[in-house]
Amino acid sequence: MEKKHLLYEGRAKRVYATDDPELLIAAYKDSRGTAAVPGRGAVNNRVSVCLMQMLEREGIPTHLVEQRSDRETVIRRVHIIPLKVIIRNVAAGSLCTRIGLPEGTRLRSAILEYYYRSAALGDPMINRYHAFELQLCTPEELSVIDRYAFRINDILKPFLRGLGVDLIDCKLEFGRLPDGTIVLADEITPDTCRLWDAETGEKLDRDRFRRDPGRAKDVSEAILRRMTRGNFV
Ligand code: 5GP
């Protein structure tokens, strides 16, 4: 497959057209915003591919086609639904400031939240009625998204726990294929989840990276190593 022009550049990835109109190439960058760490893109690419392959095996459709090189993955072209879907198991980050729970409080059951992806508005939190008013998706599509989000959490949580990592929360994005099928899109990496060491509580994710960007790649690699040790890669 031939890589063609750049379609989109985000903070963490570039997305290219290919000679197949249904397929794109996602290329992970070593930087995310300002902090660049050599090799980070390749590690995050591998982590996301492995997790999406596992989710596919468990029956969650994703945009993944195949890893193309160390930092490139072939994905299906989707219409991205402009919602950040957050699923939480333990209180952290904006949940603590919004409803006053102390950081680290284990939630009675997983909490699902939606944020409207809009740079101009600063990605505000919304509910399903706002999503329908904005025609981001249909009620049927949102119930599929909800079901997938809880199921993804139910798959990732015990898997990561087996690697000694607690899944605190996770950001998911979904897309619509030309035939209307909803699929998991974007990426699942330590840049899109909060991951704490199950034993020590040490932060292994981007909260850690923000304070200590040089450690970003080390942490992703540690997670990849733990995945490899479980014969996962
Ligand atoms: P919070 O709402 O507590 O700031 O974030 C909840 C979870 O979603 C965290 O794991 C955070 O890393 C992730 N998250 C929220 N918004 C974004 C975003 O715009 N980009 C990325 N990569 N992750 C996000």
Architecture overview:
The chain is built from six helices and 14 strands. It is an alpha+beta fold and 233 residues long. The chain folds into two domains: 3-76, Phosphorylase Kinase, domain 1 (2-Layer Sandwich), CATH 3.30.200; 79-215, D-amino Acid Aminotransferase, Chain A, domain 1 (2-Layer Sandwich). The strands form three sheets. Strands 8, 9, 10, 11, 12, 13 and 14 form a seven-stranded antiparallel sheet that branches. Helix 1 (40-57) runs parallel beside helix 6 (216-229). The longest helix has 24 residues, at 139-162. The mean pLDDT is 92. Guanosine-5'-monophosphate binds at residues 84, 86, 92-95, 169, 171, 191-194, 206.
Per CATH, the architecture of the largest domain is 2-Layer Sandwich
Sheet bearing the most strands, described?
7 strands, antiparallel
CATH topology of the largest domain: D-amino Acid Aminotransferase, Chain A, domain 1
The overall pLDDT, averaged over residues, is 92
Number of E-state strands: 14
Class per helix and strand makeup: alpha+beta
| Terminal-residue CA separation | 24 Å
Please state the oligomeric state of the protein chains shown: single chain
Compute the gyration radius: what is it? 17 Å
Percent of sequence in beta strands: 25-35%
CATH level 4 superfamily of the largest domain: ATP-grasp fold, B domain
Could you say how many structural domains there are in total?
2
Helix content: 25-40%
Low-confidence stretches: none
Q: How many DSSP H or I helices?
A: 6
The distinct ligands, each listed once, are:
guanosine-5'-monophosphate
- Label the overall shape: globular
**Name of the CATH class of the largest domain:** Alpha Beta
Order of helices and strands: EEEEEHEEEEHEEHHEEEHH
